[in-house]
Amino acid sequence: MTVDHVSSREWAQRLSSTKIPTLMFPTPADAGVHVAHVVADLIRENNAASVPTVLGLTTGATPVGMYHELVRLHREEGLDFSKVMAFLPDEYFPMSPDCPQSNHPWMRSHFFDHVNIPEEQIQMPRGDTPLNEVQSYCEEFIAAVDRAGGIQLQILGIGRNGHISFNEPGSSWHSQMRVAKLAPETRADTAGVFGGEENVPRQALTFGISNILAARQVIIMALGHRKAEILSRVLTGEVTEAVPASILQRHRNTIFVIDPAAAGSLVDQDA
Ligand code: GLP
Questions:
Q1: What number is the average pLDDT over the span 89-118?
Q2: Domain holding 109: CATH number?
Q3: pTM
């Protein structure tokens, strides 16, 4: 295990026993700040070259600290998001964007409402798309990503069962954006937000695994002890469709950003 000074304000331990590069920060807050600074550096570099920054974003408890820091960088340090194009890879289905449980209000209240990304540069899947139009809707959504030049940096979280976006265990590596069935453990994990598991939608719109793999860079965050068991399978196990995030072992520019609770026994293997 080595200790890296990632910047003057942050430090991380780079775990050496993992099949995907993994940086462990002392606290969830440090992890969030680090990822925000990677995003900010990319935006600044692209702004200086007058080119857009195409981001794939994510919801969930995990990225909250990252969004908080990005908003602070905008407010206090003038980070300019005007050339950012933001794509969200998933949404419950069916789901009205006006519903409090939709990913749309979540993204707006945690991020979009507080930075200067022009509205026309924000794209989030609409869970109220009629079922018979979903396939063409998904094709058009991915075509919009392609027209933007593809995702430069995709931020991800991970489900307890290894899902990425809403690609549950068993999802094909070749899967494209689609309506996918949610796993029972995913529905159980979101029951609180919906006031009971019976209210959680059974499906979601989601980027496919192949759409995620098309991103030039992926940063996947995992925080807290509830992620430790799956992380050890993703980071030290075989690539298998039973553990969707394990495919990131084959992505050439992916990094895990975790905290000690999520690292669990990986730290002992590293010592
Ligand atoms: C949801 C989302 C994922 C997210 C995962 C983990 O199912 N579709 O994108 O990464 O849950 O969420 P959390 O960060 O709250 O643990």
A1: 98
A2: 3.40.50.1360
A3: 0.96
